[in-house]
Amino acid sequence: MTEQTNETLILAIETSCDETAAAVVSNGCRIKSSVVASQARLHERFGGVVPEIASRAHVEQILPVVREAMEQADVVPEQLAAVAVANQPGLTIALMVGVTAAKTLAWAWQKPLIAVNHIHAHFQSAMLEQADTIELPAAALIVSGGHTNLYDAESCLELKLLGKTIDDAAGEAFDKVAAILNLPYPGGPSIEKAARQGNPGAIAFPRTLLGKTSLDFSFSGLKTAVLYHCQGQDMKGQNRVPAMSPQEIADIAASFQAAVVDVLVEKTRRAVEQVGARTILIGGGVAANGALRQAMESLAARQHLRLLIAHKRLCTDNAAMIAALAYHKYRAGLFAPMSLEPKATG
Ligand code: KG4
Ligand code: ZN
Fold it and tell me: Is 103 helix (H, G, I), strand (E, B) or coil?
């Protein structure tokens, strides 16, 4: 058993999409355990997440995953300061499983309950296991499967939304373009892998910037441009993509990825200017992308800014980031009632 110390231990649960996750984190930054049971194999043949399948798999996985997180951390319930859960945004019937589990455990163990916004928690991934402290204000970019948001971060609990996607999220565009190119699900890592063999300058795909000052995003035109490019190879107008050589696929993947990266970098640059940021903070699954990380490093170096970006393994959904944000809410006394409900939006 862990020795008695003055550390604040929080157990967090994450079930917003297709990962059943639980973690125990100390003082909001040191990961004692982080268990993630991915359902990717269950959804693969549908090319996307099926909510009913996700919910059922969460029900099966949640207790074993929580037990494993507690065992790996070598922690007993009495040592916990609180139980936290991501209650928004996400698939309601998936969130419901985590919220019900967290409420039950908090009640049974007589611990306070903390509700965490999954999107805001993604930023905490960049702070986990890092000695760096954040210099505020920060221009904070979330690039995930469901969201592409830019914030003015005045603190981890004060995020002002500056811009968001008006159609597809960046990760969604990666997933849809991967489907067009017949690359395996989830699409982001597949595109990145194919792009390594391709020429990012091969095809001039559009960079949609929505005007000179806008901080909103639009990726659906880019996705359609990829589809037309593929169809246009020999069957324009039909809703089928002809067979392509591995080199053609690699060039399309690299050119698409370059277009997404250019847009994300330009919008982040604008946000930095607008809020007078000293730090760029990036989170979400797409932040695992090597080309994006490199481009953001160059932007930060050019503008003499700090760049806080999560370790690759912490970019995608996990519960450690939920526990990290919960720690700040714990310190601020922001607890949730037992009537807490899941919420699809947020
Ligand atoms: O943050 P996340 O795990 O889940 C959501 O909250 O949505 O993000 C998942 C998204 C998926 O769209 C996936 O294709 C994308 O992140 N992704 C990537 C990479 N790894 C994951 N996109 C580009 N390059 C990657 N290496
Ligand atoms: Zn996420």
Answer: helix
